[in-house]
Write a structure and sequence with these properties.
elongated, Dynein heavy chain 8, axonemal, Dynein_heavy_tail, dynein intermediate chain binding
């Protein structure tokens, strides 16, 4: 029982740390007003990497051994652990999905950033079709709040590109 208590203390520390990571990941992001869509992709890539690292740690043999000892001891801390394990898995999957969806827009980021206003207009119809596809298929980007944020970033990039074009011309 002494060993079980020590292991439960360790798992409770992990639970507290994982909860903190989840809480921080759900907080509002502070972003510059003129940020472009590639920053959205970078955000989700970073988040995916963080959650995947956490999942790798959770699935490590050391953690699995401790969890199996606590299972044998019928520890009550495992209920919280399993819930958090599921939450981390869901967060990692959501980040991976968002990266996948945003990569479909990635081919437009270059033309949006470097094109002239005239050539930029040629990309708008297919860009909007891709945004529409993301809206209809993504569990995350199917809300007006998330879609507004994404469209704002796309618009910001277009405005910045036009400003640069005008200043150079």
């Amino acid at each position: 029982t002494e060993v079980t208590e020590k292991l439960e203390e360790v798992v409770m520390i992990w639970i507290k740390q994982i909860r903190q990571v989840l809480v921080e990941s759900e907080q509002m992001r502070r972003e510059a007003d003129d940020i472009g869509p590639s920053a959205e992709l970078e955000h989700w890539k970073t988040r995916m990497s963080s959650f995947n690292s956490l999942l790798d740690e959770i699935k490590s043999s050391r953690v699995k051994k401790i969890i199996s000892i606590l299972q044998a001891a019928r520890s009550k801390t495992l209920k919280q652990w399993k819930e958090l394990d599921g939450n981390i898995t869901n967060a990692a999957n959501a980040a991976k999905d968002n990266v996948r969806y945003l990569y479909t827009l990635d081919k437009f980021f270059g033309p949006l950033a470097k094109a002239s206003p005239v050539t930029m207009m040629e990309h708008i119809p297919s860009l909007m079709n891709t945004v529409c596809m993301i809206y209809t298929t993504s569990p995350y980007y199917n809300t007006s709040e998330c879609m507004t944020s994404l469209l704002l970033k796309i618009t910001n990039q277009m405005i910045n590109t036009c400003k640069t074009y005008l200043c150079e011309g």
